[in-house]
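HUMAN: Quick job: go over this next protein and say how the chain folds.
***
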Amino acid sequence: MEAFFAVPIIPQKLEPVQAFPGIEHCYTISQVQAEFNVSPAALYHLLHRHGIVKYCIGKFTYVPKAELDVIFNAVAL
């Protein structure tokens, strides 16, 4: 009877979404706020809305330059 209710265990391996591109190809959160003149709340919602990955290394949080440049250059047009 218990065989009907048994759930097979499937091991799942979590893989990172993207590899870290390197510090030279990233902005810190404070650099983004200063360069694009955006508030912390607006930046937070922008990152979540577009699904941009943040990388926490040490005490700094990095965001890829390429993804932010595309978003902010598209808004400026």
About this structure: The first helix runs from residue 29 to 36. The chain has three helices and three strands. The mean pLDDT is 82.
